[in-house]
């Protein structure tokens, strides 16, 4: 019994494995497209305005590390970082509770009108929330929720919960019902099933919506600058406004501020990356 090595003739034809070079080229171009702007941002954070004008894309010739402490002080990051942390934490907790209970109800309880609710969530996820800015501002003003972190957190709940609910429901639908049926036989309530059965099995889905909503709340600018006027309550994205004058902008300080803003996000991703990927690949069932 003979074997034919790859690349040799078989039946008059040469069998060759397809080249993987185009895939590597595509991946390299994709990596450059993703990392390139961050590298340029890092370069510009170490330059003066004059050097940025002469050399906007290249590395700094004389690095100006003073941009970072100056940007930190001028942008008020000691205050805005704390405010954004509060906003992000409140948003993540609220979105996980709202979307978790809603997704469980739609995926497991077979409630009437589920298809209508799903259609509503699809529409709500597709519509730009800026359309509701004017009536929302008047409503928040009458409720005295403007210029408060709680009012902004509630807005973020409304923005991120529809997509989080759809994402989490699609994850819960794929989970088997055997554990839930066994818990019901043992007399567990629906809340106990959600907390003690569904939550441990679906924590990768909850981690995903927590990361998505948390990053969205950290990076959000439009509603933050509209509903927060007190400098002591402004989030980190509004710190960019501190480097703008009537006729110019200090791009060196702005780039340094951008690096300061994305550092916590990068650190959080690196911290949770292994657990996030291992949770997704492990699946819901464990022995």
Automatic annotation (TrEMBL):
<feature type="transmembrane region" description="Helical">
    <location>
        <begin position="85"/>
        <end position="105"/>
    </location>
</feature>
<comment type="similarity">
    <text>Belongs to the binding-protein-dependent transport system permease family.</text>
</comment>
<dbReference type="InterPro" id="IPR000515">
    <property type="entry name" value="MetI-like"/>
</dbReference>
<keyword id="KW-1003">Cell membrane</keyword>
<keyword id="KW-0472">Membrane</keyword>
<keyword id="KW-0813">Transport</keyword>
<feature type="domain" description="ABC transmembrane type-1">
    <location>
        <begin position="81"/>
        <end position="272"/>
    </location>
</feature>
<feature type="transmembrane region" description="Helical">
    <location>
        <begin position="149"/>
        <end position="172"/>
    </location>
</feature>
<dbReference type="Pfam" id="PF00528">
    <property type="entry name" value="BPD_transp_1"/>
</dbReference>
<feature type="transmembrane region" description="Helical">
    <location>
        <begin position="117"/>
        <end position="143"/>
    </location>
</feature>
<dbReference type="InterPro" id="IPR035906">
    <property type="entry name" value="MetI-like_sf"/>
</dbReference>
<keyword id="KW-1133">Transmembrane helix</keyword>
<keyword id="KW-0812">Transmembrane</keyword>
<feature type="transmembrane region" description="Helical">
    <location>
        <begin position="251"/>
        <end position="272"/>
    </location>
</feature>
<dbReference type="GO" id="GO:0005886">
    <property type="term" value="C:plasma membrane"/>
</dbReference>
<protein>
    <recommendedName>
        <fullName>ABC transmembrane type-1 domain-containing protein</fullName>
    </recommendedName>
</protein>
<feature type="transmembrane region" description="Helical">
    <location>
        <begin position="21"/>
        <end position="43"/>
    </location>
</feature>
<feature type="transmembrane region" description="Helical">
    <location>
        <begin position="193"/>
        <end position="218"/>
    </location>
</feature>
<dbReference type="GO" id="GO:0055085">
    <property type="term" value="P:transmembrane transport"/>
</dbReference>
């Amino acid at each position: 019994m003979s074997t034919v090595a790859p690349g040799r003739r078989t039946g008059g034809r040469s069998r060759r494995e397809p080249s993987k070079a185009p895939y590597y080229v595509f991946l390299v171009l994709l990596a450059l497209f993703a990392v390139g702007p961050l590298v340029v941002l890092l370069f510009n954070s170490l330059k003066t305005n004059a050097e940025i004008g002469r050399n906007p894309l290249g590395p700094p010739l004389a690095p100006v590390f003073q941009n970072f402490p100056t940007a930190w002080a001028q942008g008020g990051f000691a205050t805005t970082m704390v405010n954004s942390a509060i906003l992000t934490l409140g948003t993540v907790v609220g979105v996980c509770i709202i979307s978790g209970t809603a997704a469980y109800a739609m995926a497991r309880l077979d409630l009437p009108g589920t298809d209508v609710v799903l259609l509503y969530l699809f529409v709500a996820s597709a519509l730009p929330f800026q359309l509701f800015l004017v009536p929302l501002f008047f409503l928040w003003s009458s409720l005295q929720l403007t210029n408060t972190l709680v009012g902004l957190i509630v807005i973020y709940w409304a923005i991120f919960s529809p997509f989080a609910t759809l994402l989490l429901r699609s994850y819960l639908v794929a989970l088997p019902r055997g554990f839930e049926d066994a818990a019901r036989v043992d007399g567990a309530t629906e809340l106990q099933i959600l907390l003690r059965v569904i939550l441990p099995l679906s924590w990768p889905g909850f981690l995903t919506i927590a990361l998505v909503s948390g990053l969205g709340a950290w990076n959000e600018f439009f509603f933050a600058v509209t509903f927060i006027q007190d400098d002591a309550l402004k989030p980190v994205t509004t710190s960019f406004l501190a480097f703008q004058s009537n006729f110019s902008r200090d791009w060196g300080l702005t780039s340094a501020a951008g690096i300061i803003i994305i550092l916590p996000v990068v650190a959080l991703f690196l911290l949770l990356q292994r657990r996030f990927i291992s949770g997704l690949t492990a699946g819901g069932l464990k022995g």
